[in-house]
Amino acid sequence: MIGVMALAWAFATLATVLAACTSAPVPSASPLRDQPTVTAEPRPVSLSGPGSFVGIWRDEAGVRLPDGLPGGEALVLHVMRGQEHCGWHRIVFLSMGWPPGTLVRTPPEYHQYVRDPRGLLEEWPLARRFATGIDLPDEAVDTGFARGSWELWVVPREPRAVFLVNADYVERWPRTDQVIACD
Q1: One-letter-per-residue 3-state SS of the chain
Q2: Spatial contact of 111 and 159, defined as CB atoms under 8 Å apart
Q3: pTM
Q4: Which of 16, 83, 142, 180 has the fewest CB atoms inside 10 Å of its own CB, making it the most exposed?
Q5: Nearest 5°: CA angle at 47, between 44 and 48?
Q6: Would you place residue 48 in the very low, low, confident or very high pLDDT band (cuts 50, 70, 90)?
Q7: Facing residues of 141 across strands?
């Protein structure tokens, strides 16, 4: 008898909770929109280190770009730090659909670019070499993609490199000839 009363009480409590939850409007969330606003001051993005690039990138309207996380959904742009167990934690990998803005799902569909200032990936085939403090090519165009003060620029007819621009500072990240991964 006590078991039946406990079960009845549990159902009544559950019904009350469900009624309370369904009576209040629930804000809708889009995976492409911002998360709830945080009142803390944002951390500044520095010019040094891979952490400057890793994280949420946004388009020109400030909308978060699909980054393929979590679970391997499609991506427009994904930037990640290399694996520490391979000694690649100072390397940054940028994967994106081409042309910029294209939604892709698998490595053959996206281009991979690499920021490797120490030359740790010299044995891997790269279309060009990483360079810093260079001039932005005249034919480069702004993709509208940004993280903090970093902007992503490309030369549309030449996908062998992308350019990360912060004020007057420019880095050239080469495209990999094959997807580079660490086991």
Answers
A1: CHHHHHHHHHHHHHHHHHHHHHHCCCCCCCCCCCCCCCCCCCCCCCCCCHHHCCCCCECCCCCECCECCCCCCCECEEEEECCHHHCCCCCEEEEEECCCCCCECCHHHEEEEEECCCCCCCCCCECCCCEECCCCCCCCEEEEEEECCEEEEEECCEEEEEEEEECCEEEEEEEECCCCCCC
A2: yes
A3: 0.71
A4: 16
A5: 110
A6: low
A7: 154
Contact 66, 73 (CB under 8 A): yes
Q: Where are the domains of the chain?
A: 50-174
Strands laid side by side in the 110-115 sheet: 77-81, 92-97, 110-115
Q: Provide the β-strand partners of residue 147.
A: 150
Which residue is listed with tokens 């949420």? 56
Query: How confident is the model over 101-134, as pLDDT tens digits?
Result: 999 987 778 899 999 999 998 888 888 889 999 9
Residue that the structure tokens 């980054």 belong to: 67
Residue bearing tokens 């990138």? 57
Per-residue pLDDT at 144 exceeds 50: yes
